[in-house]
Write a structure and sequence with these properties.
The protein is an alpha/beta fold and 271 residues long. It contains 12 helices and 8 strands. The longest helix has 20 residues. This is PLD phosphodiesterase domain-containing protein.
C-alpha cells in the first residue's frame, strides 16, 4: 500500500489544486469503470493541469492499458491522499454579490487551486458536519440567515450536544439593543426547546460593538473565520472574505471562543 500511495502522490497533488478536489475525486471514482481514458477526461474536466496530468497518471500506474482493478485501487489511494491534504489546508472563502459574479469566475480561472468557495455554502457545510458541538459568533445576526442553521441546531441538541451563540446587544443593559439579534437568538432557542443538549448564549452588553469577530466552528474540527456576519448581507449580498480552517486551527479557535464565552455575560437563562 505504501508504494501505491507514493505512486499516486503526484496525482493527488494535482487534484488537490483543482477548484473542487472532493468533486474531482468523486469524478475519478465514477469514471474508473470506463478505463484510463475516462479517468483522464474526468480529471481534465475537474480542472487538473493538462500539462502535468499525463505524467502523473502514468506514474500512478493509471496510464493507457491499466486494468480496471488497478484503476480502482488508484482511485482509492487518490481519495485517501486528497483527504489528507485537504484536512490540513486553509482555503479562501468569499461572499460574491451579483455585480462581482463575472469577476469571481475570472478569479477562479486565474487561480484554479484556490477554490474560493462561497461563504453560505461553507458555513452550511460546517454546520452540517457538526455532531457534538456547534459554535456561532458574530456581532450581527439575522433570522433569515440563522434559519438555514436551525436544522443543524436541532440535530446537535437532539443528540445531546452543545450549541453556543456569541453575539451582542441582546438586553436592555446594552445602550442600543439589537432587535435583529434578539429575534435570531429567539429562533435558535425555540429550535432547541425540548431537546436534551445544551444551548449556551453569551453576549456583549456594554457600549460599542464589543464582539466583532465572525466565526463558525463545528466539532472543533472545521471552522470559518472571516468578515461575514450571519446575515443575508454577509452570506450573499456584501463583498466579504474569510478562510476555512482545518482541525489544526479550528480547535484552537474553538478554545478561544470558549474563553470568550466565559468572559461574556449570559443574557438569558441557560438550558
Amino acid at each position: 500500500m505504501a508504494s501505491l500511495l507514493e505512486a499516486v502522490t503526484p496525482l493527488a497533488d494535482l487534484v488537490a489544486h483543482t477548484p473542487d478536489p472532493a468533486a474531482a475525486v468523486a469524478g475519478v471514482r465514477a469514471a474508473a469503470p470506463g478505463g484510463p481514458a475516462a479517468v483522464a477526461a474526468a480529471l481534465t474536466t475537474a480542472g487538473a493541469d493538462r500539462r502535468l496530468l499525463p505524467a502523473a497518471l502514468a506514474f500512478a500506474g493509471a496510464g493507457p492499458g491499466c486494468p480496471q482493478s488497478e484503476l480502482a485501487a488508484v482511485a482509492g489511494a487518490l481519495e485517501v491522499l486528497v483527504a489528507q491534504q485537504l484536512a490540513g489546508r486553509v482555503s479562501l472563502v468569499l461572499t460574491v454579490p451579483e455585480f462581482l459574479t463575472a469577476a469571481h469566475a475570472r478569479f477562479l480561472a486565474d487561480h484554479p487551486g484556490v477554490g474560493a468557495r462561497r461563504t453560505s455554502g461553507v458555513i452550511a457545510d460546517i454546520a452540517a458536519g457538526a455532531v457534538r458541538e456547534l459554535t456561532v459568533a458574530a456581532p450581527f445576526l439575522a433570522a433569515v440567515a440563522v434559519e438555514d442553521l436551525l436544522p443543524d441546531v436541532r440535530r446537535v441538541l437532539g443528540a445531546g450536544g452543545r450549541v453556543t451563540v456569541l453575539t451582542r446587544a441582546l438586553t436592555s443593559r446594552c445602550p442600543e439593543p439589537s432587535g435583529a439579534n434578539i429575534a435570531a437568538v429567539a429562533a435558535v432557542r425555540a429550535a432547541g426547546d425540548g431537546r436534551p443538549g445544551s444551548l449556551r448564549v453569551r453576549s456583549w452588553e456594554g457600549p460599542g460593538l464589543g464582539v466583532h469577530l465572525k466565526a463558525v466552528v463545528g466539532d472543533r474540527a472545521d471552522g470559518y473565520l472571516g468578515s461575514a456576519n450571519v446575515t443575508g448581507g454577509g452570506q450573499r449580498d456584501h463583498v466579504e472574505a474569510g478562510v476555512r480552517l482545518p482541525r489544526t486551527l479550528a480547535a484552537p479557535l474553538a478554545d478561544w471562543l470558549d474563553l470568550l464565552a466565559v468572559a461574556l455575560t449570559a443574557p438569558l437563562p441557560e438550558r
